[in-house]
Design goal:
heterotrimer, B: mainly alpha, MetI-like fold, globular, C: mainly alpha, MetI-like_sf (chain C), transport (chain C), transmembrane (chain C), transmembrane transporter activity (chain C), MetI-like (chain C)
Amino acid sequence: MRFTRMLRVGAAVAALALAAACGGGGGGTSGKSLAQRAKDTKKLTVGIKFDQPGLGQKTPDGKFEGFDIDVARYVAKQLGVDEGNIEFKKAESAQRENMIEKGEVDYVVGTYSINDKRKEKVSFAGPYFVTGQDLLVRADNTDITGPDALNGKKLCSVKGSTPAQKIKTDFSQQAELQEYGGYSECLTGLSTGKLDALTTDAVILAGYAAQNPGKFKLVGKVFTEEKYGIGLKKGDAEGRDAINKAIEKMISDGAWKASLEKHVGPAGYKIPDPPTVSEK
Amino acid sequence: MDFLSRYDLLGAFWVTVQLTVFSAIGSLVWGTVLAAMRVSPVPVMRAFGTAYVNLVRNTPLTLIIIGASLGLYSTLGLALADDTSGTFLKDNNFRLAVLGFVAYTATFVCESLRAGINTVPVGQAEAARALGLRFGQTLGIVVLPQAFRAVIAPLASVLIALTKNTTVASAIGVAEASLLMSEMIENESDKLFLVFASIAVGFVVLTLPTGLLLGWVAKKVAVKR
Amino acid sequence: MSAPSVLYDAPGPRARARNVGYTVAFCLALVAVAWFVLSGLNDKGQLDGQLWEPFVTDSRIWSEFLLPGMGTTLQAAAVAIVIALPVGAVFGIARLSDHAWVRAVAGVVVEFFRAIPVLILMIFASEFYFLFTDVSADSRPFWAVVTALVLYNGSVLAEVVRAGIQSLPKGQSEASLALGFRKTQTMTLILLPQAVTAMLPAIVSQLVVVLKDTALGGALLTLPDLLSQYKLIANNYNNTIPTLIVIAVLYIAINTVLTQLAARLEKRLSRRGRPPAGVREDHIEQQDVHLAETKTGDASGA
């Protein structure tokens, strides 16, 4: 008898678990534009990165800070939503389109490069920042001068990353590749000299350099162009225009530059000129 | 099935097989040493054996493998390959992974062997001692050979588990089967089931014969008592 | 041969001297390894107080990172084992069915999922949920991890259940049938309750396996578990190696508690000796053999 009760409890838990799993999704976004939704509910859900120093980082206070976070907050404010009413959600790179399509977030600000493949699924506002692939090396390194100087060097990147492959195919065929699950693993080897360079977008690298003052530097030879945009539901032209307006305002009133200087400036990273908002 | 030819499935599984074989040999040796320590007359060795098994067995393998890469190589600078070979990172990661698998799997080999030693009748060891054999001889010549014959089946499950555990090496970028699977899924998400099936079949092909063969061997060599 | 002393004589003067020699040599070797590790860590500044300090002085490192991570780990493991138990029971019973086709189907399913690495199942489940379901991005890694763990551990537990039922004395089911119980009643009222209580220690040690396997989800599937916290902590405090060590200690502590619990349960249950005296010895021996088997099955834990 005891067992049948156990079985029943087990079944109930399983059923509950399933229900929770299925009911968990969906932020209840209707067909309305996000600009309208923000005005009505005074609330927004924004997808960000949690583990990107300088851009989107979770701090020990349980808060978030970084350039992407500042952009997300600024845009929300322009849409009439206070800082306290923004709900931040972790948006891993591979999940960004899916989260937007399913309405789990209103928009995503998370090192999100605008490209045509993504545009099939989501709309972009911006760009709010233009960067490109670069290399991060130890501060005392002098022989790595660019992507073509990596033959025989140990290059680190994250799994399934196209940047690292690009270096091997286009610049330095003899480069050795180390792939990890995340960039922070690369930094351990980079700081002890067991790895020679880390590659990804320059501004991300600048975030890590700023986090470890005096330890790392950017090579500064950018060899691709990445335009960071704010991703939102496909076809929401009204929302896109509203966000574009907010980005333009952020650039023109100096908040854009101030935020960058605060979060990635300490790395000695030269802050590029603000982009022209072109996603119309 | 055309897309399968675009990926080096066999190559990836070959890495899995190599990881398994090298780790299996290493864990068998290290596991036997640990078991010997745990039954040895030297208290320090016994204590070390017990502590090692309890600590390592309770640590997630993923953590051990990441620790091998970040701790042993990146921090302590332990290089297990030729730095000038041009494939240093590939070789070094492979060997670090093997080292991690050996460290972890040996604890299970050790515990199986200890259980095996317990199946050997007390009289065997008593007779060996009566003949004047020392501890090393008693263990090496009389007890362990019988213990091994008794634990072929449990060791087979350890080997199968090891084969599957080699997938964890993908955490430090060793290009084995699961890393290939992630790559395939990223590029061909519409063929999810086909990708899964091809990788799954690979592992079934690797583990099923191992189990059957060693099960047969276990019956064949079992000490009849 | 439980006492190890059977393997060697009580040491005489020469053996004692030799043992002292071994002890010294072994200690020296241990010290050498420890020296290599510690001096290496020290060279790279990994022993600096400032890297370790936050774990003591900054409670936020616990409240924001480690404890929530541990919560996720425990939650995933608990949910997985709770669902895996009934699944395992069903398949274990199915493998003992009187109908050949039920046995065959259950056998194939169980053997298949036991042959596939949990990580492969996790990657598959995650992508499956991504493509075909509405599971939100937040909870997708969690359910992918749980699904994979249920499929794998359900299969393992099915074997545990099957062996547990088979180890029961035949008289149990015979008596039950003689009393007029039907097959289902015999199974659910007579056999399973006895088998499950006897298997409880094995189930608790399986929990250790499950708990360790959740770390796969943390490292390779973006589950915010205990292991994955090292990235977030290292981003804020620049102390990857100390963080990994602290996290390892936490895992070892949790798993040691569970292992002790399993050992204690095992002791208590074997003392209680539920079966009638006549079959008792046989039963316990079977159980021990069986437990030895499932313990080696532990190795499947990653």
